[in-house]
Amino acid sequence: MSKVRLIKILQCLALCFYCVSAIAHPSKRIVLISSNSHFGLVHRIEALLYAQPNIEPELYHHVVDASLADIDPKQLEKADLIVTVGTQALATTLASETTIPIFSILIREYAFHQMLAEHKRFLNDPHAPISALYLDHSFERQFELIKTLIPAKQSIPVGVLLQSRSTPNAINLYQNNLPKGITLITSHTTAHENPSEALEMLLEESRVLLALPDTTIYNAKSARGILLTAYHKRVPVIAYSRTFVNNGALAAVYSTPKQIADQTTQIMATILRSEHCTLPKPLHPEAFSVAINYQVANTLGLLLPNEIQVQKMIQEKSGNADALSS
Amino acid sequence: MVNEWGIKSRVLFLTLVPTVIISLLLGAYFTSTRIQDLERALKDRGYAIALQLAPASEYGVFSGNSHTLQRIANDALSEPEVRSVSIFNKDGRLLSHAGHEQQTPTTILSISDQTHGITMADTGHSLLFTVPVTIRDVILEDYAFADSTYDFTENHENILGWISIELGRMTTTIRQYQVLFACSIIVLIGLGISGIFAFRMGRDVARPILNMAYTVEKIKNGNFDARVYTNAKSELRLLESGINTMAAALKAAHEEMQQSVEQATADLRQTLETIEIQNIELEIARKEAETGSRIKSEFLANMSHEIRTPLNGVIGFINLLMKTKLDPRQKDYITTIQKSAINLLSIINDILDFSKIEAGKLSLDLVPMDLRECVDDALTLMAPASHDKKLELVPMFYSDVPEKILGDHLRLKQIITNLVNNAIKFTEEGSVIVRIMLEKDHEERVMICISVTDSGIGLSPEEQKLLFQAFSQADATTTRRFGGTGLGLVISKRLVQQMEGDIGVESELGKGSTFWFTFYAEKEKDPLPYAFHPQLSELKLLVFESHPTTRTSLTHLLHSWNIQYDSVNDPVEMNAALLQAHQNLQPIDIVIIGVNQLDESNPGITALIKQIKVQYGCKIIVLANTTDQAVCDTLHDIGAAHFLSKPLSRKKLHDTLTELFIYQRDAETIDLTEYNTLPSPIKNTHAPLRILAVDDNIYNLKLVAALLENLRYKVITASSGFEALTLLQESAFDLILMDIQMPGMDGIEVTRRIRLKESPGHHIPIIALTAHAMASEREAILGAGMVDCLTKPIDETELGRVIERWTGQNPIQNEAQMMEDNEPDPIKQPVNWDQALRLSANNANLAKEMLLGLVDSLKGAQAKTNQSFAKNDMNQMREEVHRLHGACCYCGVPDLKASVAALESAIVKKDMDLTNFLLVEMNKEINRLQKYILDNPFLFEQNAEAEIV
User: Which of residues 182-201 of A touch B (CB under 8 A)?
Assistant: First the structure.
């Protein structure tokens, strides 16, 4: 209750600040479009945003389903920035063919690029600027996690199962310089075949299986089989979400909603403060958490430190102390 | 059936049946439940194994890792029921198999879908579980809808493959049998135990009860000391003590009753002795009474005999006296005495008959008789009485009535006489009509009804009720007015009843009465029809009779003889008829004039006769209601050819018509007188017969002697049987007249002694003289060896007839008698030439030839008949007699024929005594005939034909 009251007080304060700043600076209109599931995240963004100094955004939050028909067109036309939360919100917004700058959060990298391709949008389009804060963490951070968890004197062969749609990821993967101690092994499969055969072959050579967030490979139906197959081969799976870890993966780096909201608010403040609401380039989350399934680790005979320690170890390795503090 | 069971059986039944039912039901229920449980357990196990195997196989199926799958399958086989495990991928390819070779089941009894997509198929021997291997969904993303748009799932269905597990039923079935067996054993043990208990319980109840029943049976059989000792408890103990108490009470009561019985027996014995004494006394009294009754009966019989004997004497001598010369006054007195005597005799006869009927000693004859002759005789007897009262007495004999019957003609005549006598007695004017009708016609018997209708005073219904009762007449005053004992109808009724008939009266006061009676009679076999002269059909007759019934009766007779006749009922019509016949040149041959009385009341008759005689030359027969000879003479003088008295007898009319029309027509060739008296040469060929008359009554003896002497026979008298035997030893006799009732030796005994000394076939004819008229007595008389029987009072004519019959010699009439009798009866000879001629169609030569043929065959037939009788071969005898009977029928030997017929009848009836007697009779008749033929050889010479014809 006190939190709600606090929020209300903050809202009042923000309103007062907005009124004052509006008089000083012309206020920017921001439309937040989300699906029904992300209220908490949106509220946090709003609250943090109003808490930002010198920003007096005019925030409008809309919950949408399939189209933007319910949103007042005038309101949308006058918007300076559209922030979409989740894949569905972005898809709906793109479908409206608006040219207002769009900043998408809570979206997988491969999904974002897939949609851009579908709606013939470009990242650096000056007429219709668009950017995103990915939900995926960078390969470096994931390799760090692997290295942290799997102590090895030699290079760790990390197996990655790829599919045709995973190409952007693979490109990213290949484009990144692999850190030391990591050997990348990839195997391709198609959307129409059981990945077990490719997986079997991949696992034969891999020490760790790195799961990429590609639903054609790792989805609700296949994940269990892949996990079982991997563990049958006693190969730990490094996942991309806490839920995946809970369901059988060994460990993952992930972002909590708070971390995402904070980073989103920062980015939005930056955008709003810019003169023309210039969007940054798409970027990976800065703050992260580590999730470990100790039962799996135990089964696989791995003795792992606790999650905080791992997180610190990664941060230390990557030198990102800010993220840890936040 | 259960109701007949004993207690033990019932207890067993009532205990065991529910136990058995409950045990069986429970056993069945638990067994089936257990079996079902086992079945269900098998299924559950299969289900569980399938459920376990499915997730276990997820990886193997997902990855196609056969090794892993094989291991899983092999592990599953360690379960006892699992026979085989097969794992397929989702395309149906076999990934792994363990256990025996699984083949596609050929018979699947049932398939059922379980939860989790498991399918269970029952092949009978095993259960086949097919379970899908699925992979469960796993949520990978932390944020909802983060990647929902690109959640492609088309190539990743849940079902990875299939596992087929076969569970054998063998183990389960063995367990089921074990359960069944165990359950059966338990039920049987339970039943056995309950049966033992029930048996013991039944025995515990039944044994004391049987013990009690046995004791009660002993008590029932008189053993009151018997007691029940059982160790029964509760109610049975009460019953036991009750029975013992009852036995004690019964014993006490029995002893008390015994004492009472002894006391009562003593009293009873005393009473019985008293009754015995009384019985003896009563028996003595009864015997005395019977003796008294017998003595009375004998007295009555003797009395009647004693009364009849002098009365016979009186009547006999009156008859003799009337033949002497008497002055008119004397004749009047004598006539009165005669009538009184005859009345007295009639009364005595009635009383005798009644007493015999009452004593049940009346028996009827069954001999061949001619019913018409019987009726005619009876009416002839009653004619004088009807003549006196100027009544028309008419017999109406219906054509369908058989004339020849077997019956008792004397008794029939008695009944008819009685009824006609009553009718005449109670009728002052008019007619008495006797109708003889056929009531029923059976094969061998007929029922004949005879009615007597009068136009008399009639009877009121009350009077009718009194009729047929002894000693009663319709009116108390009637007795005085009309006389009579009142026994006639009663006797008639009894006689009719004995003839299986009935008697009754229909009457109305003042309008006359009809008395009728019926009787059964046997038909005579093969009766000869009444032979009338065939030439009578040429006759033309005119009948004048004013009385319609008499006219009908007369014309009926004429019609039956095919005579052409015309009938008129007044003189005018008669004249007209005669005139017309005369004019038509078809003259009338004979005129019959019927009148009631020929006295002053009918003056026209004399003139009428004269006129007819003169004018038309017809022969005239006068029928009149009189027997007065003077009238007859008068009519003869006038010109009447013949006179007949009413009622008209068929025979008399036939003979008269034959004589007048046929014989007189052929007068030049026929001497009727000679014919009728043939054979005349025998008249003087014999010396007077020697006749022995035996009677203890001197007056009777004297009367018989007088009568016989009157008939010109030589008479020797004997007053006792002994005397008669003595006389027989001394000299020979042609005939014996024997009284039956004689002191010392009766007539039957005398006859027996006479017969003992005779040789068969050559014995003296002995004729009984008896006052007893009963048929049984007649049989006894004939059985003793006598040949005939004469009933007292002896009638002179009857005496003559009988003597003639048995000696073949006619009595020589005295002059006075000859004078009276204008038309003497033809002498009874063995040969009746008239009949012989009739039977041979008036061919004298043929008649003689047939007679000689018969005589020639007689000796052989006689010998054979006697031989067969001696051999006791009745069939042979019957054949011989029947043959002889047939031969006799066409030869005019009536006596021989009658004796042969009687003998045949006796043989048929198997009456040996009668057969014996009748055989003797037949022998005598044969001897008689042979003797006649020997005595008259000239009859059979060639030139004797004219004499015979």
Answer: 191-194, 196-197, 199-200
**Measured distance CA(B442)–CA(B423) in Å, rounded:** 31
Q: What distance, in Å, lies between the first and last C-alpha atoms of chain B?
A: 101
Separation CA B693–CA B701 (nearest Å): 7
CB pairs under 8 A between A and B: 117
CB atoms inside a 10 Å sphere around CB B797: 13
The region that residue B6 occupies, defined by phi over 0 for left and psi between -120 and 50 for alpha, beta otherwise, is beta
Q: What does the pLDDT read at residue B260? A: 93
**Of residues B683, B700, B776, B786, the one with CA closest to residue B735:** B786
Distance from C-alpha of B788 to C-alpha of B301, rounded to nearest angstrom? 22
* Closest by CA position to A161, among listed A124, A206, A215, A199: A199
Residue B90: how many other CB atoms lie within 10 Å: 16
User: Which chain B residue lies closest to A242 (C-alpha atoms)?
Assistant: B142
Which run of H or of E encompasses B404?
A: strand B404-407
- The pLDDT tens digits for B454-480 are 988 888 888 888 777 765 555 455 444
B167: alpha, beta or left? (left if phi > 0; alpha if psi -120 to 50): beta
Residue B367 phi, psi (nearest 5): -125, 155
User: Which residues of chain A are within 8 Å of residue B65 when distances are taken between CB atoms?
Assistant: 232
Residue B149 contacts A where some CB pair is shorter than 8 Å: yes
Q: Does A86 touch chain B (CB under 8 A)?
A: yes
Q: How far is CA B923 from CA B565, B863, B929, in A?
A: 47, 10, 10
Whole-prediction pTM value? 0.41
Spell out, as residue ranges, where chain A has pLDDT lower than 70. Answer: 1-4, 6-7, 9-26, 37, 65-70, 164-176, 319-326
- Select from A115, A200, A242 the Cβ nearest to the Cβ of B142: A242
Which letter, b or e, does each residue of A222-239 get, where b requires 16 or more Cβ atoms within 10 Å of its Cβ? bbbbbbbbbbbbebbbbb
Tokens of B63: 């990855």
Within chain A, what is the greatest distance between any pair of CA atoms?
67
Say yes or no: ipTM exceeds 0.90.
Answer: no
Question: By C-alpha distance, which of A111, A210, A212, A229 is closest to A163?
Answer: A212
* Residue of B360, B362, B313 whose CA lies nearest to B341: B313
d(CA B834, CA B671): 13
Distance from CA of B139 to the nearest CA of A (A): 5
Residue B752 pLDDT grade (very low, low, confident, very high; cuts 50, 70, 90):
confident
Whether residue A142 lies within 8 A of chain B, CB to CB, comes out as no
Q: Which residues pair with B557 in a beta bridge?
A: none
Measured CA to CA in angstroms, residue B338 lies from B104, B107, B331, B346, B461 at distances of 146, 137, 10, 12, 37
- Three-state secondary structure readout of B157-186: CCEEEEEEEEEECHHHHHHHHHHHHHHHHH
CB contact under 8 A, B63 and A232: yes
- Worst-scoring range by mean pLDDT, B183-187, B262-266, B862-866, B887-891? B887-891
- The answer to whether residues A145 and A310 touch, using CB atoms and an 8 Å cutoff, is yes
Computed from CA positions of residues A35, A40, A44, A50, in that sequence, does the dihedral angle turn out positive or negative?
Answer: positive
Which chain B residue is nearest to residue A249, measuring alpha carbons?
Answer: B140
Give CA–CA dist B293/B306, Å, rounded: 19
Of the listed ranges B42-56, B443-457, B882-896, the least confidently predicted one is B882-896
Sign of CA dihedral B578, B584, B585, B590: negative
